[in-house]
Amino acid sequence: MKLNLLYDVALSLLLARWRQTLVAAVGVTFSITMFIALLSFMSGLNQLLDGLVLNRTPHVRLYNEVQPAPQQPIDRYTGPGRQYNFIRSVRPRDELPRIHDAGAIIGALRHDPRVRGVAPKAQAQVFYNVGTINLTGTISGIEVEQEDRLFAFGSYVVAGNPLSLKTVANSIILGKAAADLMLVGVGDVVQVTTVKGNRAQLKVVGLFQSGLLEIDKVQSYTSLATAQKLLGEPNTYVTDVQVKLHDFTLAPRLAKEFAALYDVQALDMQTANSEFETGTFIRTLISYAVGITLLIVAGFGIFNILNMMIYEKMDTIAILKAVGFAGADVRRLFVAVALAIGLSGGAVGLLCGLGLSALIARVPFHPASLPGVHTYPVDFDPVFYGIGAVFSLVTTYLAGFFPARKASKIDPVVIIRGK
């Protein structure tokens, strides 16, 4: 049978029951719209949460944790016969958690083609001296330009200029929550004391806000040179080497390789944030499940409408078969009706999904803990639109296929006899 004739008959069936056709198309449109909007919003939210933690996390962190010596002196003694040594309350060696030969390690990593960047850091436990009260805190000595390039440090500074750490001697950028506790602001001077008793007065040149209150209460930043001077250590003193890779999926393997090569401890991003990534995966899974459920519900709507149409058009089907339409032609006819509903409803749904996502992305959103966020996060990933288009066609095809197969098996003689 000619396809043009089949399409003309299918169009006539659609227009003859245009209200039912419109209801089915609106069902598909609504499902696709909500599918696109839901996935775009949840993906944007996931990216925002990932950015709070993962974007500030090195793909591989090299450090030298203070641990008890693996071989105690008594273990070197081997007497005659069988002998067992029992050692209790072993204390670690009296040394700082510095990375030995950090300069050579950093130089080698910066020439590694798999590495995008390296940022050294010197960590120090301090007390912020506020009158007679001491607040515990942590100062990280950083190379500001590297930290900004690899971890977007500047985007978290809500007051002052992050590059002032490099240009102003003895300066500090405080966490905003810590600054609020100490009632200080940009331009003020704070006094800090290290655990060794070294004291220094540092000028506040900026405030940062990470979005995590507990971190903002204790964390602060100085230049690497200022931190080394505060600790009374030489300019080779580094406690952490933060590595960003071109491909972060290589982090677990490269962490083991770097640990063996440089004789340090290494922690990859996937291990350090395994629980966080599990939460992101579950949120994404829930979003897909809800969206696909909406599409399946729309498919059942089309299935019911086509079933009703077949029952109402029994006479028409019988006449079509009597004038030469084969069973396969009738099946193609009703599949074409279902696909027409899916195509029209899906196309409008994709446009409505894009419009609704754009509308959500313009809604003001000003969380106090995230100063860099001004609207709701939305991800306009084309993959979502591709999935929506394909799934709408598959759903409507399956919804139309079974009623169409049933229609193709109708015996026209039985219908014409009125049985």
Automatic annotation (TrEMBL):
It is found in: Cell membrane. InterPro entries: ABC3_permease_C, Lipoprotein-release_system, MacB_PCD. It is a multi-pass membrane protein. GO terms for biological process: lipoprotein localization to outer membrane. Keywords: Cell membrane, Membrane, Transmembrane, Transmembrane helix. Its main location: membrane. Residues 21-259 form the MacB-like periplasmic core domain. Residues 290-412 form the ABC3 transporter permease C-terminal domain. It holds the Pfam family MacB_PCD. GO terms for cellular component: plasma membrane protein complex. Belongs to the ABC-4 integral membrane protein family. LolC/E subfamily. This is ABC transporter permease. It comes from Hymenobacter aquaticus. The lineage of its organism: Bacteria, Pseudomonadati, Bacteroidota, Cytophagia, Cytophagales.
